[in-house]
Amino acid sequence: MEEVTRFAPSPTGWLHLGHAHAALFARRLGRRCLLRIEDIDAARCRPAFAEALREDLDWLGLAFDGPVRVQSAHMAEYAAALEALRVRGLLYPCFCTRADIAAAASAQHGPSGLVYPGTCRGRPDAAALLAQGAAHAWRLDVARSVATTGPLSFQERGEGRLPCDPRPHGDVVLARKDVPASYHLCVAHDDAAQGVTCVTRGEDLRPATAIHRLLQALLGWPEPRYAHHRLLAGPDGRRLAKRDGAPSLRALRAAGHSPAAVRAMAGPA
Ligand code: GLU
Predict the structure, then answer these.
(1) What is the CATH classification number for the domain harbouring 44?
(2) Pairing outcome for strands 225-229 and 198-202
(3) Nearest atom in ligand 1 to 38's CA
């Protein structure tokens, strides 16, 4: 199959071997492979990291097709998608703080962290709070949304069609208090906008697919195929992560490793 894939890093640090693995996986699977910079979180992302990652990918010998999409340049598109859901009554404003959510007796852990207990769903003073300018996020009413789409599924490479259910995630945030968009909204939007036919990403993001399938179904976006890849582990057997000091590609380069050696370390996709 002639797939269009993408590599979609967030410029919150230097790329490490786990990213190289993901990028090589996307490149190998895609006849066309796109690069997307997921930088909506201005507090965590740095332009210097975005520049550095492009340089690291060049050094590794990875070429991407088409223009690079930089999410922070497309906020109006995310706002339009959000509005389309809001006018259908599928979103509600949420005024809770993280502490409120954690303290809620009913807060449960779900596939993507704490499940929102629904405190602000159907809140009678929501309009008044909005009028006062109270800080708020926008959440998707997931149960109501699923009631409109019916059961969902996705096509996983090598596994066939798998059922998926976004409801265990609870009412996810589509627009944050500090950023008027969210990971789920931007990823689903951009995969459609960029014509991605096969979403390649780490296994850790497989649970999010249920939410992305829901957004695609609600907004009439095409359904891509999915190929989730294994996560690279460090010598201790734990998955590589920048917070645990996984060696960056630039550190490996500075230590004298060649691009071919680093590609080999990143392992077969
Ligand atoms: N930006 C995400 C990350 O760096 C990847 C998003 C995706 O592939 O869906 O983990």
Answers:
(1) 3.40.50.620
(2) parallel
(3) 1
Residue 187: both structure tokens together: 């990823």
Mutate to test the pocket of ligand 1, among 15, 112, 187, 242 (most ligand atoms within 8 A of CB): 187
Same domain, 163 and 189: yes
| Cβ of 96 less than 6 Å from ligand 1 | no
Task: Identify whether 177 is a catalytic site residue.
Answer: no
pTM of the full structure: 0.95
Express each pLDDT in 130-142 by its tens digit: 999 999 999 999 9
Rounded to the nearest angstrom, the distance between the alpha carbon of 18 and the centre of ligand 1 is: 12
Which atom, in ligand 1's list, is nearest to the CA of 202?
Answer: 8
Residues 136 and 239 in one domain: no
Atom of ligand 1 nearest to the CA of 191: 9
Distance CA(161)–CA(248), nearest Å, equals 36
CA separation for the pair 25, 201 (Å, rounded): 8
Are the C-beta atoms of residues 103 and 114 closer than 8 Å to each other? no
Asked if residue 208 and residue 124 are part of one domain, the reply reads yes
Residues 78 and 63 in one domain: no
| Domain enclosing residue 130, as ranges | 74-195+204-222
Per residue in 106-135, pLDDT tens? 668 899 888 999 999 999 999 999 999 999
| Terminal Cα distance for the chain, rounded | 17
Is the CB of residue 185 below 6 angstroms from any atom belonging to ligand 1? no
Q: In terms of domains, do 44 and 88 share one?
A: no
Task: Tell me if 227 is assigned to some domain.
Answer: no
The residue whose two tokens read 């909005």 is 130
34 shares its domain with 97: no
Query: Both 19 and 85 in a single domain?
Result: no
